[in-house]
Structure formats: structure tokens, C-alpha cells
Design goal:
globular, binds coenzyme A, binds magnesium ion
């Protein structure tokens, strides 16, 4: 498995229950960077088989011309092996698999083996990518181990609803942004240390209201690369929020140009607009340019 394959940008990841024909029909036109076909918590237990069955038609039939992820059920649940086996049999595999409730490297090893078998059977040469949802105390406590354990990993996603329940946090408390800071920092650090995208999980309302904007804005300020949406109305805000502004982009390009000039002319320290340019600013500027180009931001 190659580690040089790069993920696309994931400013907005729209979750679409695979059991809902109406939402499935609507989703491709919404403009999300990634559509996440959900087989897990957006699908009732009684509808799991039907939702899984819909995969074949969707993925085989060119359902979306953008990136498609499939959220399978959690390792150890009654459905995860069925979900992964169904994926394996598909003529067209999705770009990535989202594994929920990842609690250890063993969970990802289980998924990796099944996917390796799927790839061997399908003759697919481009390895399918994996995204891990961190949404339990166990997963959060082992996030460093998880982030480092698989060449397939593209991103970690922090999931608030399940994490709140796992930590013993009430729904009211969970709406308090400051209470998530430590968990967000822990996940973000594990991502950056391992070259992964850091994705903020869904806000639990469907509106684009002050609460949604505050939560998304906080994630962006912290350094996250994108966020999940559960409703089409949220997508546009996320795409714009997680894109650099024209001023940010212009400044980043100027920083890189000045650093390049300084390097070519072998001058030591250089300044731009009264600010000393150093390696930290180069890294930040490269990230801004990569984000603007929809390139991988890791
Ligand atoms: N993907 C695609 N289309 C969606 C959608 C989604 N996630 N959520 C809503 N829509 C569609 C609706 O079908 C509706 O389309 P229509 O006008 O053609 O009927 C339109 O967008 C407006 O929807 P609205 O009436 O405002 O919402 P709703 O009451 O139909 O649905 C939810 C509300 C929360 C049930 C729905 O947004 C949803 O299922 N979200 C995803 C939930 C999920 O994936 N959970 C697991 C991950 S956390
Ligand atoms: Mg969850």
C-alpha cells in the first residue's frame, strides 16, 4: 500500500443516509467536497440490509462525480463484516471508507485485511482509503496509536454526539464549544503528527444558525481542514469557511515568493510587510496555498 496517494480536500462532507432515496437523489447536486453514504447511525437497524443493497446500484451507476465515502457500521457491530464484504463485491469501490467508533489499532487492522481482500478480488490497484471516526473515550485515549497505525488512513474525524455520551456529558453541556477544546486539540495534534487531515464532526442541528457558524468557525480557527454537514444547507458555508480568503491567499503566495527569492540569493533573514519570514510562516503559507488549490492539506 502506497502512502504517496493524497486525499482530496474535505471542506464539507455531507452525510447521506443510504436508506433514503430522496436524499440520495438530492445529494450529488449540493456541492459538497465529499458525500458520505451512511450505513451506520443514520440508518435504522431494520433498514440496514436495504441500505447496504442500495450501494451496488449507486456506486456502480456513477451516482456522484465527486468524492464518495461509505460509512460502514462499527467493528464488532452485527453489520460491519457484512458492509465490508458487500463493498468488496462492488464493481466500483468508493474513494474511502469511514470507520466509526474506532477504539484501537486492532479495529483498523480488521478493516485493512478485509479491504486488502476486496482489492485482491477486484484487481483494483489504487488502495481504498480509510477515515477513522474518533467518538468514544477509548478511541480518544488511544488516538496517537490509531493515527499512526495504517497507511490507508487519510483523516481522523471527531464525532461529538457519541463522544458526549461516552464521556458522560449531557446534550446541553455538549453544545458548549469550550468543553470540546481538549478533545479537539488531542485529535488535531495526532493528525498533524501523522500527516492526516483533521475533520470536525457534524453539528447536531440542521440549520445554518449562529450555533452552527460558531462551531464551524471554532474548528477552522483551531486548524481543522473541514467539517461534516448533515443538511445540504450547511455545505456552502463550510466550503467558503474552509477556503482561504483572497487576501490570505495573496499573502501566502507573497511569503513563498519572498522566501524563494531569499533562498536563491542566499540572503539570511527576510521580512515582508514588517514581519520576519521564517520556516513556520513557510509551512503556514504552503498550507494556505494547498487549501486554495483543493490539494491535500496535510
Ligand atoms: N443529504 C441529502 N439531502 C438531504 C439531506 C442530506 N443529508 N438532508 C435533507 N436533505 C434534503 C431533503 O430530502 C429535502 O429534499 P426535498 O426538498 O427534495 O424533499 C431537502 O434536503 C430539505 O430537507 P429538510 O426538509 O430541511 O430536512 P428533512 O426534515 O427532510 O431532514 C434530517 C432532516 C436531519 C432528517 C436530514 O437532514 C438527514 O437525514 N440528515 C443526515 C443525517 C445523518 O446522516 N446522520 C448520520 C450522520 S451524523
Ligand atoms: Mg457516531
Amino acid at each position: 500500500v502506497s502512502t504517496t496517494l493524497t486525499p482530496r480536500s474535505r471542506r464539507s462532507c455531507l452525510s447521506v443516509p443510504a436508506s433514503s432515496p430522496r436524499k440520495l437523489e438530492k445529494a450529488p447536486g449540493v456541492g459538497a467536497d465529499e458525500l458520505v453514504l451512511d450505513l451506520e447511525d443514520g440508518v435504522a437497524a431494520a433498514a440496514k440490509d436495504e441500505a447496504r443493497g442500495a450501494l451496488t446500484e449507486l456506486l456502480g451507476g456513477g451516482w456522484s462525480d465527486g468524492a464518495v465515502a461509505v460509512r460502514v457500521n462499527a467493528p464488532g457491530s452485527p453489520w460491519s463484516h457484512l458492509d465490508l464484504a458487500a463493498l468488496a463485491a462492488l464493481p466500483a469501490l468508493p474513494d474511502s471508507v469511514v470507520v466509526p467508533k474506532v477504539e484501537s489499532s486492532a479495529d483498523l487492522a480488521f478493516v485493512d485485511r478485509l479491504l486488502a481482500g476486496a482489492e485482491a478480488a477486484s484487481g483494483r490497484s489504487r488502495p481504498i482509503r480509510v477515515q477513522a471516526l474518533i467518538e468514544t473515550a477509548a478511541g480518544l485515549s488511544r488516538v496517537g496509536e490509531i493515527a499512526a497505525c495504517s497507511d490507508r488512513l487519510d483523516s481522523l474525524i471527531i464525532g461529538y454526539a457519541d463522544l458526549a455520551a461516552s464521556l458522560g456529558r449531557s446534550k446541553t453541556a455538549a453544545a458548549e464549544l469550550d468543553l470540546w477544546l481538549a478533545a479537539q486539540e488531542t485529535l488535531l495534534t495526532a493528525c498533524r503528527a501523522n500527516g492526516l487531515q483533521a475533520i470536525d464532526g457534524p453539528y447536531l442541528g440542521i440549520a445554518v444558525d449562529a450555533g452552527f457558524e460558531a462551531a464551524a468557525g471554532r474548528a477552522r480557527e483551531l486548524g481543522f481542514d473541514g467539517k461534516w454537514a448533515i443538511h445540504p444547507a450547511q455545505v456552502e458555508h463550510l466550503n467558503s469557511l474552509f477556503s482561504p480568503t483572497p487576501a490570505e491567499l495573496e499573502h501566502a503566495r507573497a511569503v513563498l515568493a519572498e522566501l524563494e527569492r531569499a533562498g536563491a540569493e542566499d540572503v539570511g533573514a527576510v521580512a515582508l510587510d514588517g514581519e520576519m519570514l521564517d520556516e513556520a510562516l513557510r509551512v503556514a503559507a504552503e498550507r494556505v496555498v494547498a487549501r486554495a488549490e483543493g490539494a491535500p492539506t496535510r
